[in-house]
Each structure stands twice: as C-alpha cells, then as structure tokens.
Design brief:
CATH superfamily: Ribonuclease Z/Hydroxyacylglutathione hydrolase-like
Number of strands: 5
Largest sheet: 5 strands, mixed
Strand order of the largest sheet: 1-2-3-4-5
Order of helices and strands: EEEHEHHEH
Radius of gyration: 13 Å
CATH architecture: 4-Layer Sandwich
Number of domains: 1
Structural class: alpha/beta
CATH class: Alpha Beta
Number of helices: 4
CATH topology: Metallo-beta-lactamase, Chain A
Helix content: 25-40%
Shape: globular
Length: 97
C-alpha cells in the first residue's frame, strides 16, 4: 500500500490523502485549500501528485468545505469514478457544491 498526505499536512485546509492499494488508486477527501486568493486558486486547480483521470474512487469523511470543496475541480480535471460518503455528507455536499 502506498499513502501520500497531500493536503492539510502543513496547513489546516485542503484535506486530501492519496492511496494506492494494488492496482486501485483512490483519495480520502478532496478539500478546498483556503487562504490567499491567488495562491489558493493555484493549489485548488492543480493536482500535481496524481492524475485525476487515474483515480478509481473518492471517500469523503464529512461535508466540510476543507474536506469536500474541491470535488468540482477534481471532476473538471478528469475524475469520473464513484464518490463514497454518508447520506448526510451527500445531502450537504449537494447544497454546498
């Protein structure tokens, strides 16, 4: 198993953890990085540690913006897999995003 702590490792926003288990690649959370506008914009629109097209699925821990807010950018960059979350997280994200 490979694990990379990509987001929220040195900050408190932008939670994103990349996993590779066998041939499966997935992420836990796709959080929005918050902070200075230009810097945050760049961090949110690029995924330098993995190709979103290669991600098989996403697991969301909960519906806070810093854990789920970057899902739209992930989809814009080519992600097309399933998103797994609790019903409450799904419902909140449908309003929030």
């Amino acid at each position: 198993m490979e694990l990379q702590f990509i987001g929220a490792a040195k900050t408190v926003t932008g939670s994103l953890h990349y996993f590779k288990v066998g041939e499966k690649k997935f992420i836990l959370d796709a959080g929005l990085v918050q902070g200075k506008r230009k810097e945050s914009f760049e961090l949110n629109r690029t995924f330098e540690f993995f190709d979103p097209e290669e991600i098989d699925f996403v697991i969301l821990s909960h519906a806070h913006i810093d854990h789920a807010g970057n899902l739209p950018n992930l989809v814009k960059r080519g992600f097309h897999g399933n998103i797994y979350a609790t019903l409450a997280t799904r419902d909140l994200c449908s309003v929030m995003l």
